[in-house]
Amino acid sequence: MNEQLTVAPLAEHHESRQPPRHALAWADRLRNIATLLVIIIHASGSVAEGNRQYDTLFWWSGNIWDSLARPAVPLFVMLSGFLLLGKDYELGYFLKRRFSRVVLPALFWMLVYSVYNHLVKGTPATVADAIRGIVERPVHYHLWFIYLIIGLYMVYPILRPWVRSASERDYWYFFGACIIGTWVYKILWVFFGISIGIYFELFTNNCGYFVLGYYLGNKVAGGQPVAATGIAPWKISEKQIRRLAVLLILAGTGITAVGTWWASKAYGGVFHPYFYDYLTPNCAMAAAGWFLLAKWSMNKAPLLDIEGALAAASFGMYFAHVLVMDWWSQVGYFQTRIHPSVGIPCVVGLIALMAFALITFIRALPGGQKIT
């Protein structure tokens, strides 16, 4: 596969100076998993969030699928942190190359969705409204992600030299501050109406996931040669790491599903979104589990051609899948046409296949790779 440094939709591909592709096959496999998880979120969301019958199998089907998929965005951020923070770029080169690989396709798809929204909803009404909308907010609900990656690119030059010199204690200080500034702050505000007055600045939102990806990606198992970083090795074996990964996935997913059920019933019978939030302990547990499972279980075989093709198309699939999902619903194939326990995975498969075919076709056109 040609050099691909897109964010797919956030995680970087590897350059030629990186180890052979099979050495990082797990990263592309995890990227493909995360892409499917994004589609699952959007296919299951209306079932879980639009139904107030919280004790029915119908609702639980949507809730479980949605809960399982919640680590999608953190996984993309973690993959970007692992693959970006391990590289050295001259500042001007980095900003020019990174932003060109993200901003150009983002502007193209924002234009596509602006036209789509105008035709379907009548907004934006004018070109001026469309331009203002692009600056102020995501043009469509899933495009907020582009604003996130741009923000992470802006802090990369600051974080890169820090992770190079940071010790294990430094990392735990950073993660501890992120826990207070993100998890504790959110819990106190959402459930108790208490606001922490301290501005945590660098330790809020997704920066923690960005650094966590680098940290977990460079942490070696007990008995392996220590990497040339300040990151201490695991004190457990590879087999134990895999068991830990599965436990984290099950625990994080379970807390998300049960917590959403409890909060929605306890707070007036209205759907409560807290446990679905990406910046929660339960979501972080599941994301860390998926990341570790991929790194320690999905790297034994070289990347298959279809896996590489999916990874190359993942950035474009992220952009296009909402249009495809809307098309399927318009022709009558929606997630509740049959019971959502089956309907959701069927719709996800249809959306993924069609989005992949669409992006593969676009990438074969002149200039197509620049917008996908």
Please provide a brief summary of the model.
The chain is mostly helical. The protein has one domain.
The shape, in one word, is globular
The pLDDT mean sits at 90
* Strand elements, count: 0
Provide the β-strand percentage band.
Answer: under 5%
Provide the structure class. mainly alpha
Unreliable segments of 5+ consecutive residues: 1-11, 13-21
Helix content: 55-70%
User: Rg, please?
Assistant: 21 Å
Structurally, the number of domains stands at 1
Report, as a whole number of angstroms, the end-to-end distance. 15 Å
What is the number of helices? 12
- Main sheet characteristics: none
Any key phrases for this structure?
mainly alpha, 12 helices, 67% helix, disordered N terminus, 372 residues
What's the layout of helices and strands?
Layout: H1 25-49, H2 57-69, H3 72-85, H4 91-121, H5 127-136, H6 144-165, H7 168-192, H8 207-217, H9 238-266, H10 281-297, H11 305-330, H12 340-364
Characterization of the model:
By secondary structure, the chain is mostly helical. It has one domain (21-371). It has twelve helices and no strands. It is globular. The chain starts with 24 loop residues before the first helix and ends in an 8-residue tail after the last helix. The model is unreliable at 1-11 and 13-21 (pLDDT under 50).
